[in-house]
Amino acid sequence: MIKQLTIIVLAVCLFSFGKQDRPTIYLIGDSTVRNSNQAYWGWGSLIGEFLDTTQVVVANHAMAGRSTRTFRKEGRWDKVKENMKPGDYLLIQFGHNEGSKPDTTRQGYRGVLRGIGQDSITLDWGNGEREIVRTYGENLRRFVREAKQIGVAPILLSMIPRNQWDEQGNVKRANQDFGLWARQIAEEEQVPFIDLNEITAKKYDKIGPEQAKAKYFPGDHTHTNYEGAMENAASVIEGLRNVEHPLVKYIK
């Protein structure tokens, strides 16, 4: 009996050690990375379907409605940093909630300054509360640098494309603003960049606006259903292969 209990305890300990020893892929972003998993899905909820999760853990900390500014302001980034350890990975995808002019109104609560510069403004919320608002690029830069300080390997991704089309019948790209700025920060900080916007947009271009809407977008032009989230997760995997990232070894 004692021998059997000893074997069980050893097995539990080995299992626990193996679990802790696995690297973790942390995801931060907005609703297109993590959603309700009902009518709308985020690709971060499905990325594990493509990975060997006996060897790597996926921790999806993205939150609907957040921007690079509010993800930090609400303390969500601090909680992620508390859990990260050397050897982990961080995938960063924001851009959908950054566009409003930053101010103290409800509409301006999520907004950031445009570009990648280090300029900032200070907002006065009253009662002595002041907030420094930075550019989208600077917010990404800080995520990357703080992750590196812990020994975590960051990857920047452009945001998934919206169901919006130009006059030529192609999906509108984000390569002149948020996608461009994410790429520029990746190059500056010498971290991998996955152009998720372009990879998925090419898929939409092939099937056209009517089929893309019917197949992937049950409501608005931003949030996808399960099939759309799965397609975006597949695009992330394609992006990892394109940049020949070490995470490729965990792909099924």
Number of helices in the DSSP assignment: 7
Overall form? globular
Along the chain, the helix and strand elements come as HEEHHEEEHEHEHH
The count of strands amounts to: 7
C-alpha termini separation: 40 Å
Structural class: alpha/beta
Task: Describe the fold and architecture.
The protein has helices at residues 2-21, 68-73, 76-83, 136-150, 178-189, 196-216, 226-242; strands spanning 24-29, 57-60, 89-93, 120-126, 129-134, 153-157, 193-194. It has 252 residues and is an alpha/beta fold. It has a five-stranded parallel sheet. The protein has a two-stranded antiparallel sheet with strand order 4-5. Helix 4 (136-150) packs parallel to helix 5 and helix 6 runs antiparallel to helix 7 (226-242). 40% of the residues are buried.
Give a quick summary of the entry.
It comes from Sphingobacterium micropteri. This protein is of the alpha/beta class.
